[in-house]
Amino acid sequence: MLIVLLVPACANGSGNAADGASSDSITIPAAPVTSVSAPAANRTAELARAPVRTPTATPQVMPPDVLGPFHFPPGYNPLTGLPAEDPTAMDRRPLAVKISNAPEVVRPQAGIGEADLVFEHLTEGNLTRFTAIFWTHTPPRVGSIRSARLLDLEIPAMYGTLFAYSGAAEPIRQRIADLPFAPRAYEGVTTGQPLYFRDPDIEVPHNLFVIPGELWARAEADGVNAPPEDLGGMAFRAAPPPDGTSAAAIAIDYGPDTVRWTYDGETGVYARFVNDEPHTDANTEQQVTAANVVVVFAHHQEDYTIVESEWQGTPYYSLEIQIWTLGPVMILRDGQMIEGHWMRWEEDTMLSFWTDETATEQLYLKPGNTWVQVVPLGFAGLEISEETQ
């Protein structure tokens, strides 16, 4: 059985509008976010955030088999809920890397399958890029590396990371330079070797790669590699949710590319496909998998003061994705889907996931890696199947 999800539309700078669902589809409304709804798209350079507040939450008594959100056993990774193969790896900072996804020459990407956490998000032209966070694994290379986007003003702050990226449009570069994590941001085109290298077999500018071990060593020498004091926020539980709905596969139609995750009951993880082809890691030639696939709905709007690219006289503007306050979320794990809200009330706190707006009960991730598929509010390009196809 196929479930077509139709989320009520609102203003978006970029999004895909579906023509409609079949007569046997099920319409599932998005969770309400009217109390902190984002402003409609405008041409203001600096967009005012909703007032930062901390919701009044009822103290939650965690079941004994839950890991997190703020307390983990020694040697456990709070980004995955798993024990680290080498606990000393957590004596360094996590590393966020900006990875390209277009054109096709950049595929398969190197190292992306070893990330603890990956955000896939829209950019100009409905193309997507990744911000991948590595902590307990050290791939020999990661890339190809491309330029930062407005979302990357948020993610390094949220997870206390180092940041590897090729460069950025000048307004974004200036904003990175003004942020507290600026000393931890290593721009590839200005940093160069030995942290970065170009693969001569791939055309410029799609051939820039980072060597994580070298970047961590430089950060150590620069005095910015101490691990963040608090990475609390996500809670993990091995037991599947008792009230989930069947979700053996999900398809996300971003426009040029359709991403599909298919659950494998034997391995207990979702396998990733792009345009019906397995998405592999160039380092290992293994298909990319995820214990959790999290769909985050957030307000998107174009910032008309930042031109990211231009084609035949048409400018393409930077896309601001407002992952602050709260919004609807879907979590797929163990072949099931649970719904609720994501929340983020402070700049230096990660996303957390809750059953409702009152933040009384957390949604539990499965221990393992997580892919976050960021989509606009009103996004109609989701299909969830109860069975694999």
Estimated helix fraction: under 10%
| H/E series | EEEEEEEEHEHEHEEHEEEEEEEEEEEEEE
N-end to C-end Cα span: 9 Å
For the secondary structure, the number of strands is: 26
Rg is 20 Å
The rough form would be described as: globular
Strand content: 25-35%
Unreliable residue stretches: 1-58
The number of helical elements comes to 4
* Class inferred from helices and paired strands: mainly beta
Mean pLDDT: 87
- Please give the largest β-sheet: 12 strands, mixed
Provide the number of structural domains.
2
Characterise this structure:
By secondary structure, the chain is mainly beta. It folds into 2 domains: 176 residues, no CATH class; 139 residues, 3-Layer(bba) Sandwich (YerB-like fold). It has 4 helices and 26 strands. Strands 5, 6, 7, 9, 10, 14, 20, 21, 22, 23, 24 and 25 form a 12-stranded mixed sheet that branches. Strands 1, 15, 16, 17, 18, 19 and 26 form a 7-stranded antiparallel sheet that branches. The protein has a 3-stranded antiparallel sheet with strand order 8-12-11. β3 and β4 form a beta hairpin. It is globular and about 50 Å long. The termini are close together.
